[in-house]
Amino acid sequence: MAAGRRRSLERELAGKVQFDRRAFLLLPGKGQRPTYDEYVVSHRVRAADMMPELGFAIPKVGQKYPSSSVPAQLVAAAVQDEHPDRLEAMEDQLFGAMFRDLRDISDPAELRAAFGIDVFPESVIIAPDIGFYRERKVRLLNGAHTATAPLALLAGVRTVREVAEHPRLGAFLRHILFEEIVPATDLPAGAALAFAGTVIDRFRNPWLDHEWRVIAANQTAKLRLRVVPSLTGFARNRGIAPQGLALGLAAYLRWVRSHPAGDDADRPLIERHWRTATAPQGLAASALADADLWGVNLAELPGLLEATTRWLLLLERDGVDAALEALPGMSEHAATGWT
User: Which of 72, 74, 120, 79 is nearest to 96 (CA)?
Assistant: First the structure.
């Protein structure tokens, strides 16, 4: 009903106000309300009387109630990320499914039936358990973004597409994705490699103008969530430090020191380390050992502190191009190589 009122106001006050979308889960967990009860039905009757144009259906007491609205919200969030121009139509269909057709929007089959197969963009997957897809996106797509952002910013490259086409940064991106992030996950190798290929294609999309300065907002928290699991996973699976991700971590330590504080809520947590460090070696040792910051003592991972310190010194002395030139394995992922 709130969405209906918002759209009425938008039409009435066109050009005078702007509304920001905020999503609130109707049913964040299962088992909260197994069936429609008298309370819900009475509110539905009232809503139908107040705004008859929205076409509220009146359920019967005892009729099955959706167990959770999380699946539907995830579908809407995916459409917002990938095809924002389709979001309003998607929300209209979601509203209709829940309030006019009384569908169980917690059921993936019901969701697909409600929207129609042709309405979903190919990038939206409806599944009973999205753990695999969440892991794949966070570790590979988001992780590659986050690990590359500081280097791209230090190099003065503005967009993701420019990095994907850059002779050295593009090779770095492919190197960390295929040689370090994929082997650090527990995802099936074939599925992970296939998705990694689509990530590169996405980064090269000429219609996306995705800026690194935007990606780097709250970089510290993103590193903790998206890249630290790959650092620990690579150490667990290979017993050594991933050199490309270590270079990305060193670039973060160098870049965040001069970055405006407003874009990183965790900046005070990392800032305390360079206040006390007198040299790059001390900064790397102190920052990586901060388990409160990363959720794990990164300095204890085999070879990571040494690699990060070495890259930090090289970045400060010779810059990004020299560091990328020194990274082993880069030639295998040059712009004309494997993607």
Answer: 72
Contacts of 284 (CB under 8 A, 6+ apart): 250, 253, 305, 308, 309, 312
- Burial environment of residue 183 by CB neighbours within 10 A (0 to 12, 13 to 18, 19 or more): middle
Query: Phi first, then psi: what are they for 211, rounded to 5°?
Result: -90, 140
pLDDT in tens, 85-119: 667 777 777 788 888 888 877 777 777 666 654 44
Task: Round to whole Å and give the CA distance between 68 and 25.
Answer: 9
Higher pLDDT, residue 118 or 75:
75
Which of 21-25, 270-274, 329-333 is the least confident region? 21-25
* Three-state secondary-structure class, residue 35: strand
Residue 284 half-sphere exposure toward CB, CA atoms < 13 A:
25
Q: How many CB atoms lie within 10 A of CB 195?
A: 18
Residue 211's SS3 state is strand
Q: ∠ at Cα 302 (298, 303), nearest 5°? A: 90
Predicted confidence (pLDDT) per residue in 284-296, tens digit:
999 999 999 999 9
The encoded tokens of residue 177 equal 């994705």
Domains annotated on the chain, with CATH: 2-115 (no CATH), 131-333 (1.10.1040.10)
pTM, full prediction: 0.68
User: What's the chain's average pLDDT?
Assistant: 82
Summarize pLDDT for 22-38 with one digit per residue, the tens. Answer: 554 455 455 557 788 88
pLDDT of residue 128: 60
Bridge partners, 64 (sequence order): 35
Given a contact cutoff of 8 angstroms between Cβ atoms, the answer to whether 66 and 106 are in contact is: yes
CA gap 265, 252 in Å, rounded:
15
